[in-house]
Automatic annotation (TrEMBL):
Name this polypeptide is given: Ribosomal RNA small subunit methyltransferase G
PANTHER family from the UniProt entry: S-ADENOSYL-L-METHIONINE-DEPENDENT METHYLTRANSFERASES SUPERFAMILY PROTEIN (PTHR31760)
Gene source species: Methylopila capsulata
Domain of life of the native organism: Bacteria
CC annotations in GO: cytosol
Phylogenetic placement of the source organism: Bacteria, Pseudomonadati, Pseudomonadota, Alphaproteobacteria, Hyphomicrobiales
HAMAP family: 16SrRNA_methyltr_G
SUPFAM superfamilies, per the entry: S-adenosyl-L-methionine-dependent methyltransferases
An example molecular function term from Gene Ontology annotations: rRNA (guanine-N7-)-methyltransferase activity
Keyword terms, alphabetized: Cytoplasm, Methyltransferase, rRNA processing, S-adenosyl-L-methionine, Transferase
Gene3D superfamilies, per the entry: Vaccinia Virus protein VP39
Pfam families per the UniProt record, alphabetical: GidB (PF02527)
Gene giving rise to this polypeptide: rsmG
Catalysed reactions, as listed in the record: guanosine(527) in 16S rRNA + S-adenosyl-L-methionine = N(7)-methylguanosine(527) in 16S rRNA + S-adenosyl-L-homocysteine
Length: 220
């Protein structure tokens, strides 16, 4: 894959800057994330190669918009299936010094990328290189927010995140065009208070915000 045209990258960065209002220090941290991604993407398929030219809007700004939907006093944030750090590392950059972010990623190479990149960005995170099922509700017993992008259907996400959601965490799940359908399916098993928020980076996408999860029937 040839390197991204610097002009294309600069235009995309400017578009993201218009969407993400953060300090210069936070922007520099996000820049470290993009540099690391460029470096590691050569040897690992961290994000879909055709999204690399728009990494600032498709991945960085897309993750950053979640922070506005979180409680103001968020202290613990858990991101499931973090992949290359979206949205988890972006959130960690925006909330540095305010909240602790747990990144749960079962792929060991991606987990190594997350650790190295967090160090380069200067953000304190905990990377769990295991399946989410092994930490949610046990190693990480409580959280204020749980997020996951492109990990699973809403029904599966609610099941996975249930121990955290039932004890008061807010769920923030970026979803595509099928968000309503996924919610209808999830509502067969779960009673939830849900709100849909338009994505600022993709007109076809929505962020599903979940609170107050209750089980309707046995999900065992
Ligand atoms: C499609 S990628 C999405 C990555 C990232 N959230 C994003 O949107 O760019 C899904 C990621 O979840 C990880 N994964 C899949 N199942 C998992 C599980 N049960 N627990 C933790 N990570 C998981 C995969 O290794 C992969 O990196």
């Amino acid at each position: 894959m040839p390197p991204v045209d610097p002009k294309v990258r600069a235009a995309d960065r400017a578009n993201a800057q218009a969407l993400v209002d953060v300090s210069r220090e936070t922007w520099a941290r996000l820049g470290q994330l993009v540099s690391m991604l460029d470096r590691w993407q050569g040897t690992m398929n961290l994000v879909a190669p055709n999204t690399l030219a728009e990494v600032w809007t498709r991945h960085v700004a897309d993750g950053a918009q979640l922070v506005a939907l979180a409680p103001k006093d968020v202290k613990v944030w858990v991101d499931l299936g973090s992949g290359a750090g979206f949205p988890g590392l972006v959130v960690a950059a925006l909330l540095a010094g305010k909240a602790h972010v747990h990144l749960v990623e079962s792929n060991l190479k991606k987990a190594a990328f997350l650790r190295e990149t967090a160090r380069a960005m200067g953000v304190a995170v905990t990377v769990h290189a295991v399946r989410a099922e092994a930490v949610v509700g046990s190693v990480v017993p409580q959280a204020d927010v749980v997020s996951a992008r492109a990990l699973a259907s809403l029904t599966e996400l609610l099941t996975l995140a249930a121990p955290l959601l039932k004890s008061g965490a807010i769920g923030l799940f970026p979803k595509g065009e099928k968000a309503e359908l996924e919610l209808t399916q999830a509502s067969e098993s779960w009673k939830v208070k849900t709100s849909f928020h338009p994505s600022r980076t993709d007109p076809a996408a929505r962020i599903v915000r979940i609170e107050g999860l209750q089980e309707l029937r046995s999900n065992a």
